[in-house]
Amino acid sequence: MMQINVNGENKECPAGSSVSKLLESLDIDNRYIAVELNHKIVPRTQFSEKLLQENDNLEIVTFVGGG
Amino acid sequence: MEDTVLKLGKYEFNSRLFVGTGKYQTFDIMKEALEASGSEVITVAVRRANIGGKAGESLLDHIDKDKYTILPNTAGCYSADEAVRTAFLARELGISDLIKLEVLGDKNTLLPDPVDTLKATETLVKEGFTVLVYTSDDPIAARRLQDAGATSVMPAGAPIGSGQGILNPNNIRIILETLSVPIIVDAGVGTASDVTIAMELGCEGVLLNTGIALAKDPVKMARAMKLACESGRLAHLSGRIPKKLYANASSPLKDF
Fold this sequence. Notes:
The complex is a heterodimer of chains A (67) and B (256). Chain A is mainly beta and 67 residues long. Chain A is 10% helix and 39% strand. With 256 residues, chain B is α/β, with parallel strands linked by helices. Chain B has a five-stranded parallel sheet. A three-stranded parallel sheet of chain B has the order 6-7-8. Chain B has a two-stranded antiparallel ribbon with strand order 1-2. The two termini of chain B are 37 Å apart. The relative contact order of chain B is 0.15. The chains are: A mainly beta (67), B alpha/beta (256). At the A-B interface, strand 3 and strand 5 of A face strand 4 and helix 2 of B. Strand 5 (57-65) of chain A pairs antiparallel with strand 4 of chain B.
């Protein structure tokens, strides 16, 4: 297992997990999200191939109500 | 009376009322209010997704994306860097290249930071965004944002969520006279007459959220705002009579 940070929370995931795997394991609704890995956007088309590393920092955002 | 469409970059709209999706008690009330407002453009915010929230509802499940153009905002950003980052994330969410840019100065006033707003506008225009930028009603700041390439400049009528209406119509008039991009009043609208005043002044549109969402009956208020927007627009296009100091009789003054 490796340590990563997701939306400000410390999480663990199996070594070599992809972004897709992580979204699945964290039970995140992946229909309307954008993902930033270490401050760089990961295009949706690369979710399944982009592999995570120890101490990676992820931001996963979505749209909410706003003015 | 025939009206032209409102053009914002490559986008065209018939409705000139833009409404937000924040602060509604339920998604159902929001949906009904959006419908009653007749708006074609609705604003949304970008925030962290819920972890373990798969079972939860997404705002976007309640919005007909074929019907509405989604206008993401950078609300809650206090620097140009943060706002630019949020704009990129919004674009990555894949719905449009439109961005309602707001870079705030502090949490009490929610007034825009003019320096960072200008910086972020310059960056986002270069990056190919269609930038609709929130600003104060300062005509010079507004002009600088137009010069930086903003598609629309959106002066506040009054502070965000304050419901005070159009506090300085004279500044809005100067902005309308000196800028050529569409001017949309954004923020401060409390009730229908505020929308009418903005449209009568010659603004191309009005953007509001709280005035509808927190009204006792948001759906009724949404309809009021729609009618007010159309009313003000028609009055503007019709050319009002000049104000005079003395009376001017409507009926003939001659004797029978």
